[in-house]
Every structure is written in C-alpha cells, then in structure tokens.
C-alpha cells in the first residue's frame, strides 16, 4: 500500500510541525514558501525525519512505500520532545508499521522501553 504527501504531513503533525514557523532557507526546491505544506515539510526536514532527493527536491506529489513511511516513523520515534497527543500518534504509527520497522532493524523492545520512559516524562 502506498501513501502520498498526506502521510508525510500526518507525520509532521506527529512531531509538532503545525505550530512552528521557519526563517531558515527553503530545504526543497519544489516546495515554495507559500505552499500549504511548507511549514510541516520544512519542520520534518529540519528534524531529520525526511531527507528529500539528491537534486534538492521533495517530490511531494509522488507516492511512497510502506518501507519509506516506516523510515519516517522510525526517525519520529527517536524524538523525545513531543506532546502527549503526538506520542500517542507515534505509538499508533509504530504499531501499524511494526513489521517494516523490524525489517529496518529497529528493535521494538528497545523502542517500547524508550516510549515507557517518555510516558513517565509527559
């Protein structure tokens, strides 16, 4: 099953991108600063959740694979400065992509320990 830019934007919301604005340079040549997804995509890039392509583009109109989405989820799981709502979304996404995360070498047991620790901090 392939996901679209909407999935990337959902992930952006997971890491709290909706409330952040940026003064930094545009990370992607094909996401203009007046585009509706600019803040979220820029936040994901700044946080290292998405990388884009070697030519400096994001290509948000292209579908992504479950494996690619799992990579973004794995990166989002490493973030410790998330709200309780964002953490709940990360938990849901990590369950949905558990097989792909395991294939990526992400140790679910270790991640669960980290999530328990994060829960105690919230």
From TrEMBL:
Keywords: Signal. Residues 24-87 form the SLH domain. Residues 1-23 form the signal peptide. The keyword Ribosomal protein does not apply. The keyword Repressor does not apply. InterPro entries: Cell_Envelope_Struct_Comp (IPR051465), SLH_dom (IPR001119). This is S-layer homology domain-containing protein. It comes from Propionispira arboris.
């Amino acid at each position: 099953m392939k996901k679209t830019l909407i999935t990337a934007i959902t992930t952006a919301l997971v890491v709290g991108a909706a409330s952040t604005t940026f003064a930094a340079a545009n990370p992607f040549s094909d996401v203009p600063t007046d585009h509706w997804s600019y803040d979220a995509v820029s936040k994901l890039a700044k946080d290292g959740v998405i990388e884009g392509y070697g030519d400096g583009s994001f290509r948000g109109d292209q579908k992504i694979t479950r494996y690619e989405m799992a990579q973004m989820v794995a990166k989002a799981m490493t973030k410790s400065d998330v709200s309780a709502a964002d953490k709940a979304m990360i938990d849901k996404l990590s369950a949905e992509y558990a097989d792909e995360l395991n294939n990526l070498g992400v140790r679910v047991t270790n991640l669960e320990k980290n999530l328990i620790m994060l829960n105690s901090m919230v």
